[in-house]
Amino acid sequence: MTTADTSPVGRARERGVQTLSLDSPATRNALSSALVTRLAASLAECAEDTDVRAVVLTHTGGTFCAGADLRDPPDPDAFVALLRQIVELPKPVVARVAGHVRAGGLGLLAACDITAAATGSTFAFTEVRIGVAPAVISLPLLPRTDPRALARYYLTGERFDASEAARTGLLTEHGDDVDAVLAPVLEGLRRSAPQGLAETKRLLTARVLETFDRDAADLTALSARLFSTAQAREGMTAFLERRDPAWVL
After folding, report:
1. Burial of 17 (0-12, 13-18, 19+ CB in 10 A)
2. 80: Cβ–Cβ under 8 A, 6 or more apart, which residues?
3. Which structural domains are found in the chain, ordered by start?
4. CA angle 104, 117, 129 (to 5 degrees)
5. Average pLDDT over residues 193-216
6. Is it the case that residue 5 has pLDDT exceeding 80?
7. Which domain of life, per UniProt (predicted)?
8. Which band of pLDDT confidence, cut at 50, 70 and 90, is reported for residue 1?
9. Can you point out the beta strands (E) in the chain?
């Protein structure tokens, strides 16, 4: 069943699996205030709907998510709340990626329970290149991914491929046909009891939620401070003007 929706989040359902699609391809599904608000509302509806067994988070266009919308960024507290909502949702959230993921989009992936991508997908933590840091997305990333890999990719902003993303723990699976990769996963979720899924997810996410409880306020404050600096203004301006920022050697 498909539901008509003019919002930046598309919706469709098949056999108990609710698909939510980031649907702002003109901005490469950047995290605008409108998209974050609508995605949070859609997830809340899924949490309350007893007919929803699992949620698939995917996208339209060639980019899963380009990170924060620099022209209409979400409130940092709202984005942290969205990440926590994905982690706490009493139903599994499965990310389906058939394109590219940057910056804040990697936080969405890390918050999901199971993540799969097409082989041609690419990933990058680009925050450092505009003068900020991957602060709030570290809440789900640090407990779930390889720390040495994060050190490299956080500090350099390099692109890496799906194979490397799987090696570091960012992805569960990857393959040429992401839907074929996910088919047995979704079938398994459909065969699992709602209570069993909810309680098992609670066990799996306990460490991640401890990180939110301990660090969310400090990392949100750090993000807000960095975005207000002169270097960040130069980095964002350079990005929008498609030029190198002043510090590039």
Report:
1. buried
2. 136, 139, 212, 216, 219, 220
3. 2-176 (3.90.226.10)
4. 30
5. 98
6. no
7. Bacteria
8. very low
9. 2-3, 9-14, 17-22, 54-59, 63-65, 93-97, 100-102, 114-118, 122-124, 160-161, 173-175
Residue type, 126: T
Q: Which residues of 65-79 are buried (b: 16+ CB within 10 A; e: fewer)?
A: bbbbbbeebbebeeb
Structure tokens at 67: 């990170």
Residue 121: per-residue pLDDT: 98
Q: Is 175 helix (H, G, I), strand (E, B) or coil?
A: strand
Q: Which token pair is 112?
A: 């999901």
- Contact between 101 and 67 (Cβ < 8 Å): no
Would you put residue 102 in left (φ > 0), alpha (ψ -120 to 50) or beta? beta
At a CB cut-off of 8 Å and minimum separation 6, what does 100 contact? 28, 62, 63, 64, 66, 121, 122, 123
Helix (H, G, I), strand (E, B) or coil at 11: strand
Q: What's residue 10's pLDDT? A: 96
State the burial class of residue 175 (Cβ atoms within 10 Å of its Cβ: 0-12, 13-18, 19+). middle
pLDDT the model gives residue 7: 84
Confidence band (pLDDT; 50, 70, 90) for 2?
A: very low
- What gap in Å lies between CA 152 and CA 167, rounded to an integer? 14
Distance spanning both ends of the chain, measured CA to CA: 53
